[in-house]
Design a protein that fits this description.
The protein has 337 residues and is of the alpha/beta class. 31% of the residues lie in helices and 25% in strands. It has 2 domains: 139 residues, ornithine cyclodeaminase, domain 1 (2-Layer Sandwich); 176 residues, Rossmann fold (3-Layer(aba) Sandwich), CATH 3.40.50.720. Helix 2 packs across helix 3, helix 3 packs parallel to helix 4 and helix 3 crosses helix 9. The longest helix is centred in the middle third of the chain and has 19 residues. It comes from Rhodoferax ferrireducens.
Length: 337
């Protein structure tokens, strides 16, 4: 059959399809860990993310993430809008589309509503980072931020650690209270809502900073971090002090290639100042997952994990969603050509 007459079909998974998949915590973590393992073994290609700001007057931007996972035989491109005032019109701040492609001939394989996927895979990366860099007996979680990814951070971390205490804080009282109520319902345990950053963070075993700032501001103080803690900051606008990296025994990233991608990121100033560099970076998380570099070596270590968003985790979780959807008879078959 010649190219001109070849028929190509792709699968479309919309938001109701994705929700109907009802992915379990274990499924999400396993899919993303698979991508990290491939990355650690240098079986992937990651291009640094790109930004598109449509208008300076609009409160947001688009991120474009691109990657390829050789063992899965899939390339992928995700476009995610990050519009932090979307709550005013009843929409999530992050709306995304994932496109999966055949890397041998460029044909499209799937289009997936990746809004929930983005939140899930971000939570999985947070949880897997902690799994390898936090103390095994971590019992107190301090979480700053209540945006979409925050729910999966807490849920997937708790699936690993079963915390005795979970503290949450965000700027708007209505968002932090609603966030805590949802977590209490879904996790079946009490959530402590704090009115300030310090009471959320001080003395916590694991600290996650997922704030939504309009401009960089060092609201998370280094002195609040207890020895032996694991700190995971990933806000688009930095909320940490420049001194944060000075107290760390190990610093790990999801992908070093993205450290300088764009002007934003929680530790961008630390990279610019030379505090986080190829020399001071302990490893990429994939290298630890693949067993090529050690994770936490003792309870005394104070460790940091910075993730900027890994296209590979989108592709791996999207691939799993596609496979599960086919088993369950979900999704629409669309003709491409």
């Amino acid at each position: 059959m010649s190219d001109s007459t070849a028929e190509i079909y792709l699968t479309y998974l919309n938001h109701p399809d994705v929700q109907a998949l009802a992915l379990t915590d274990a499924e999400i973590l396993a899919a993303v860990e698979q991508a990290l393992h491939a990355q650690g073994n240098q079986q992937t290609t990651i291009e640094p993310r790109m930004h598109l700001v449509p208008e300076k007057d609009y409160p947001g931007h688009f991120n474009v993430l691109r990657g390829y996972i050789r063992p899965m035989g899939l390339a992928g491109v995700k476009v995610v809008g990050d519009f932090y005032r979307n709550y005013e019109i009843g929409l999530p701040s992050e709306l995304a589309v994932l496109n999966l492609f055949n890397p041998k001939n460029g044909s499209p394989i799937a289009i997936i509503d990746a809004s929930d996927l983005t939140d899930m895979r971000t939570g999985a990366i947070t949880a897997l980072g902690a799994k390898h860099l936090a103390r095994k007996n971590s019992k107190i979680l301090g979480h700053i931020g209540a945006r979409g990814t925050s729910y999966w951070n807490v849920r997937l971390l708790d699936s690993i650690y079963d915390f005795d205490e979970i503290r949450v804080h965000s700027r708007r009282p209505e968002s932090r209270n609603a966030f805590a109520a949802k977590l209490e319902k879904d996790l079946g345990k009490k959530i402590t809502v704090t009115t300030d950053w310090e009471s959320c963070v001080r003395g916590a075993d694991i600290v996650v900073e997922a704030s939504r700032l309009e401009k960089p501001e060092p609201l998370l103080k280094t002195e609040w971090i207890k020895k032996g803690a694991c700190v995971i900051p990933y806000g688009t606008m930095s909320a940490v002090e420049l001194s944060l990296t000075d107290i760390m025994d190990k610093m790990v990233m999801d992908d070093w290639g993205q450290a300088k991608a764009g002007p934003l990121g929680a530790l961008r100033a630390h990279v610019d100042a030379g505090k986080l560099s190829e020399q001071t970076l302990h490893a990429e998380l994939g290298q630890i997952v693949a067993g090529l570099k050690p994770g936490r070596a003792s309870d005394a270590e104070t460790n940091l994990f910075w993730h900027r968003g890994l296209s590979l985790s989108d592709i791996a979780l999207g691939a799993f969603m596609l496979e599960k959807a086919q088993r369950m008879g979900l999704g629409q078959r669309l003709r491409f050509r």
